[in-house]
Amino acid sequence: xxxxxxxxxxxxxxxxxxxxxxxxxxxxxxxxxxxxxxxxxxxxxxxxxxxxxxxxxxxxxxxxxxxxxxxxxxxxxxxxxxxxxxxxxxxxxxxxxxxxxxxxxxxxxxxxxxxxxxxxxxxxxxxxxxxxxxxxxxxxxxxxxxxxxxxxxxxxxxxxxxxxxxxxxxxxxxxxxxxxxxxxxxxxxxxxxxxxxxxxxxxxxxxxxxxxxxxxxxxxxxxxxxxxxxxxxxxxxxxxxxxxxxxxxxxxxxxxxxxxxxxxxxxxxxxxxxxxxxxxxxxxxxxxxxxxxxxxxxxxxx
Amino acid sequence: xxxxxxxxxxxxxxxxxxxxxxxxxxxxxxxxxxxxxxxxxxxxxxxxxxxxxxxxxxxxxxxxxxxxxxxxxxxxxxxxxxxxxxxxxxxxxxxxxxxxxxxxxxxxxxxxxxxxxxxxxxxxxxxxxxxxxxxxxxxxxxxxxxxxxxxxxxxxxxxxxxxxxxxxxxxxxxxxxxxxxxxxxxxxxxxxxxxxxxxxxxxxxxxxxxxxxxxxxxxxxxxxxxxxxxxxxxxxxxxxxxxxxxxxxxxxxxxxxxxxxxxxxxxxxxxxxxxxxx
Amino acid sequence: xxxxxxxxxxxxxxxxxxxxxxxxxxxxxxxxxxxxxxxxxxxxxxxxxxxxxxxxxxxxxxxxxxxxxxxxxxxxxxxxxxxxxxxxxxxxxxxxxxxxxxxxxxxxxxxxxxxxxxxxxxxxxxxxxxxxxxxxxxxxxxxxxxxxxxxxxxxxxxxxxxxxxxxxxxxxxxxxxxxxxxxxxxxxxxxxxxxxxxxxxxxxxxxxxxxxxxxxxxxxxxxxxxxxxxxxxxxxxxxxxxxxxxxxxxxxxxxxxxxxxxxxxxxxxxxxxxxxxxxxxxxxxxxxxxxxxxxxxxxxxxxxxxxxxxxxxxxxxxxxxxxxxxxxxxxxxxxxxxxxxxxxxxxxxxxxxxxxxxxxxxxxxxxxxxxxxxxxxxxxxxxxxxxxxxxxxxxxxxxxxxxxxxxxxxxxxxxxxxxxxxxxxxxxxxxxxx
Lengths: 302, 278, 434
Hints:
The complex is a heterotrimer. Chain A has one domain (56-301): MetI-like fold, CATH 1.10.3720.10. Chain A is mainly alpha-helical. Chain A is built from 13 helices and two strands. The relative contact order of chain A is 0.13. In chain B, 74% of the residues lie in helices and 0% in strands. Classes of the chains: A mainly alpha, B mainly alpha, C alpha/beta. Chains A and B meet through helix 1, helix 3, helix 4, helix 5 and helix 7 of A and helix 1, helix 4, helix 5, helix 6 and helix 7 of B.
């Protein structure tokens, strides 16, 4: 009897997750298999019906090409972009979610709506308007700086050292809303009693944050971390429209490189190989986050 | 002592929020102010912070001379709403099942679902195109809805699962004892409590679809969303007609912004209140 | 329950919207006289009357028995190629494709375009096409389309900035040495600079180098298109002519993120004294509202691109062909639409409206009718005989990207010219040898 009930529960459980799994298998897994399959062929966008088996050649090309070099150009650019964007988006998202949540804050709805505004605007418009704002001679940014008395304002996207920072700022501006929403819903899951208890206990702000709030919303933070990291690794449109990977491959992150190979140069096989590598990078990162989460929670609960 | 500290806290809080709001609005203001400038002023130097001679001419041009396809907003709206409904529906079931039902292999299923979030859409674009044109999904609203729903379903599943987890099971158990089935409990009891989580998921799913460009470009011919249509204002050398682009963007942002404000009032604020605290 | 109401509201709105818009989405096939023609073209071509509005109306007039439906898909430059390749591979190509001349080899070699050699032979306007442009439509001895328009780059200078620098506003530089000297003299950093050229990763950037290269007697690839030739001594001089302007401070390094349109605008906004570009007058009218031809002539000038000392005048040409993709179900009607859209009468309207250069002999003779396009249009027409094309080989996109990359390194002063061009040449040889 008991076993039977368990079996029933199992069937019920799978019925609940069946719709999402069907959707994912059809529109994500199946095309993904095809992409991985393509990655072992010499296949051109212009002649997809003529493909020649190439073994590991497409993968070798990614790692052996010198211009751009994977290890000294693509990887550092990707890491810089992802770490900067993720830290900025989640950090500011969490901070603002907590601040806006404070009881004394007036006009909370309006503030939330404004904070989420950049997210409503299409990525293309974001990219071209930020590029134009950064423009050193005609852009509004340097115009304002010069009005404020700065004699030699930076050249932003033209400066090898600044260009990635510029992209990260634009990306934080655009994507922070996502983390803000997740963290806001996370904070909603904490009851007011807990919040108030923390205040009454005399815990100061920072202690309250680390000892009481963070453990309670940890699941939301980890999920946020995983999702934002993946979205940043996979995204290409902002960089594509603002610098197209330049100058000198300083902003050639791996997804932009994939776009260049697969679509720009029409080498679908190589693009597919890079896509597979992106997938692996995501996988490693996710496993890392999950491990970290597990250790943390084991330590905290024990 | 205490009040002094709390005053300081308030000042700092407001200061940070204010700075962020300025940072948020600045670029948007600059883009949208070009809506009221003639194009020579919009790309001119020095840039003008306020339109010198505010004009509505750009709206007139957009509606008459530019031949902008205004149906594209409609397409975007349909695709966005459809993607949102599909994503919410599948994620709600899965999230609830993963939170409330104990079954073998649950952990594996959960991880599998999340792993789908890491598939770069650009990588699956060509295979998807081939499949879509084979099965008549090319250039349909449904096709794009399904792709976008697939893009957001994994994270929405996790988000809702996490949200259901925070809701005490005891209320639902009581309801089940009263004779309600699992589905009925989900619908009548868990869903209303999960409204804040649902609202977040809905917003994600909608905006993901509303702002997407590359998939839409590849998968549509006549049902093109507005993001693709915006390319009309980008010229031969990548030169941009700022005034018209800004105007078209404003038209895209405004209704969504109003809609969103409406949503959050109902979802995040209104619904979360009493339910959890009880 | 509030939640229910909201969900219901969304559902109703979505359903309502779907039913309204879905009607237009489905194509109606079935009736015998219904023909649907799909056109892939740059988005901006659909925002004006010439060529498509006129061409569609004319085609409909000629075939009163057919009920045409035209599907217009407008694109940005890179997206147009991607979407075309994708749709061709998926078996649903358009009926008319606006093909950038540099994509010709790639498309034809992969069997994506219909050979129209026999069709042009029967077309009475074909003989009117300028010979050099006729030749450029051939690939492996066959014709694959006809020109919608071409463009040609000339030097534009800002006479106000020349005057401010004490230069004669009516005397533009003739060769590189004069350009170098005058650009330095016209510079007043950081307010404005003597010469501007784009440095972003796009073909328009390296076009300035190619023009210098041809002027100096060099060429981009060897005659058989099998090896790089731009790293010749002539090539090094050609590139140095640009890079030396940066070293001398007459061009800012910030052009690395400057798109061609930013640089071109800069001349009219007083940010650069000189730059080479197409469509000067159109830009001037956009940027300076109400500028009259007289005022324009007073403030700006057009001249051939300065040539190499002792070299030949040279400039670069590009442009678009209208072609029929393989797999189009209505090739006869598609060709008819093309001959109307890209015929001399329509080309005049199109080029005159946008400041492009025509490809018909009969239109070249109408330079006076183009004053509206540019008061200096004769300068542009005079430059045509010295125009060169980039090789339209299938690997072009990739090859040009190699040159664009080293050019950015050179602008930022990270490499020596010879070293950079050799590096690019090695990569290009590798691409070509595959």
